[in-house]
Amino acid sequence: MFCILLALLAVVQSVVSSPLNPQFDYAVKETNNVPPKWSIAGNPHPFHLLKLNIGLTPNNFDLLEQHLHEVSDPSHHRYGQHLSQQQVHDLISPSDETTESLQNWLSGHGIDPSHLEFNSARDWVTLTLPVAQIERLLDTKYYVYQHEDGTKLVRTTSWSLPRSLHDHVTTIQPTTAFLRANPKGDTVLTIPTDIDLSELTAAANSSALNKVCNFGGMTTKCLQTLYNTVNYKPQAVNNNSIGFTNYLGQVSNRSDARLYLQNFRPEAINSSYALKQVSIDHGAVDNSTAGGGIEGNLDLETILGLVYPTPVTAYSTGGMPPFNADTFTDTNTNEPYLTWVLWMREQDPAGLPKVISTSYGDDEQTVPKSYATQVCNQFAALGAQGISLFFSSGDYGVGANNSCFSNDGKNTTTFLPAFPASCPYVTTVGGTMNYPEVVAFDTRNGYSSGSGFSNYFARPSWQDTAVERYVDTIGDQFKGLYNCSGRAYPDLSAQSYRYIVFYNASVRSVDGTSCACPAIASIFSLVNDALVAKGKPPMGWLNPWLYQKGFQAFTDVVNGTSVGCDGPGFSAAAGWDVASGFGTPDFEKILDVLGIGS
Asked: In this protein, which residues make up the domain named Peptidase S53 (predicted)?
């Protein structure tokens, strides 16, 4: 250890004492303002290690995008012909010139190319360095930033590269991304549980909607009845599975899931211990009978209740342990989506779940556009391989109160879209409540189903007809507060109000689109089951199908408003709207639209 410290000290001293390498002509590559609620809390130790992820410009991403649209378009002759992992790699690998330019730059700073870790497609490079050396490498200065909630990150607001590298490097992180990956159903949206568990358990034995659904407490049987999966029995469990993600130390507790199933899906009671757990970057997994997190339990209990006996995988990604600015460990990178999706891209897609639910996100403006674009592009790579990605739309309508200001230095009032919900290559899930269903809103905890228009991603062509119709109906309302030409979300919705969750062996009640997201993902996992049983490929990237044909299988939500930003927000309307998307699913109608109904 003493030798390691001496070596680090030598590196830092050489970095601090020597000027920029004169062989490189540096220019600013990216600048991003500090997001609201963040402030400088100090300087990181020069030995503090950061794991850098360097994105290289793919050679043929436009062609990958073309393939993705063709295999996802139900009117195209290639529909359902998803790409292999190798085909994706071939399309997004960088050119030899790009790789050589990167290696020459790093070598010029004394970094041995053999220390670089390339992924299989060689479009991402990882290396771990002390802050002082990174500051020289990127001609920048890092600080410790602290959020009002206590979160700390080591970040900068601007970084540079040699001009010759600007076209070869898409992003380097952690630098300017302040993403926190908030769980969308955490304790902030927990509400008092004033319901009778025995009453709900008894209702689960009924078949009538007005009896099985107590909208003071959402259960598996109610969801099955509402969305018409109650009579479906999975047929392809050996060839179909579903997954969900955990971040920020969230763990899905199997003993709590067993209690939930005991009450609401007794025949599935043993499936909780069949859960496959995957740890990525030291992500936490369930190794005990207590603990975990409400978010992790919510996802597991919702999914197990709906898809049994379909296999379920929980992906737990690390990246945000307790921060200590004086340690020499590569902690607190907090780039969870990038870490997760790069790991997924390295796996054989044949062994991956074909549906994955994620109930996390943050304001889009907390990350630079380059980072959001590259993460979104990685989601596209998974979609091209036949994997459907579902993300929750957020829990604060068009933006959390007292937070709706731009991050461009002008602090103008604006609605705040969320990321990754704004990525066009994911299917974004909004929330409803009651029956007939309306856009979800709960005055007790401030919950309002998230909605918005991206400021980073242009509206894709498959959204044009639906979104333009809605924008025309609202006219100049909210003019200047949102980007009417941006990718709009949510795409669809599901119940998101007062879900029953077992946590630490006690009953809780939770609101949020993190309730709706695993429910929708479960329904489409059952759709995949029906497809696979008929010898057909899984759905894959859903959105072109949804906007072209699939919307016919959804129940329109026409009432309710996505409030936020200290005032009214987008309202539901006939057809697609930015408060509820196309509404809520009818499983049997989805099978009919796909031509595989009974």
From this structure: 217-597
Contact, 495 vs 519, CB < 8 A? yes
Backbone angles phi, psi at 386, to 5 degrees: 90, 20
Q: How far apart are the first and last CA of the chain?
A: 67
Q: Which residue has the higher pLDDT, 115 or 237?
A: 237
* DSSP for 501-542, written as a single string: EEETTEEEEE-SHHHHHHHHHHHHHHHHHHHHHTT-----S-
- H/E element, 137: helix 131-137
> pLDDT (tens digit, 9 = 90+) per residue, 120-156?
999 999 999 999 999 999 999 999 999 998 888 999 9
Of 126-140, 275-289, 578-592, which range is least confident?
A: 275-289
pLDDT digit string (tens) for 303-348?
Answer: 999 999 999 999 999 865 444 444 444 444 456 889 999 999 999 9
The phi and psi torsions of 559 (rounded to 5 degrees) equal -130, 150
Q: In sequence order, what are the residues at sequence separation of 6 or more whose Cβ sits closer than 8 angstroms to the Cβ of residue 449?
A: 393, 394, 395, 397, 430, 431, 432, 439, 440, 441, 490, 493, 496, 513, 516, 560, 562, 579, 580
Residues flagged as binding site = 556-557, 575, 577
Give CA angle at 161 (160, 163), nearest 5°.
120
Q: Tell me the catalytic residues.
A: 295, 299, 514
pTM: 0.92
Q: What is the dihedral of CA 531, 533, 536, 539, to 10 degrees?
A: 30
Going by DSSP bridges, is the β-strand pair 506-510/499-503 parallel, antiparallel, or unpaired?
A: antiparallel
Q: Show the tokens assigned to 475.
A: 């006219």
For 143, phi and psi rounded to 5 degrees?
A: -130, 165
The per-residue b/e assignment along 193-206, b for 16 or more CB within 10 angstroms, e otherwise, is beeeeeebbebbee
- Cα dihedral 480, 365, 34, 189, rounded to 10, equals 110
Distance from C-alpha of 270 to C-alpha of 258, rounded to nearest angstrom:
7
Domains of the chain: 26-58+93-173 (no CATH), 189-594 (3.40.50.200)
Provide the pairing of β-strand 38-42 with 143-147. Answer: antiparallel
Angle between helices 61-72 and 85-92 (to 10 degrees): 140
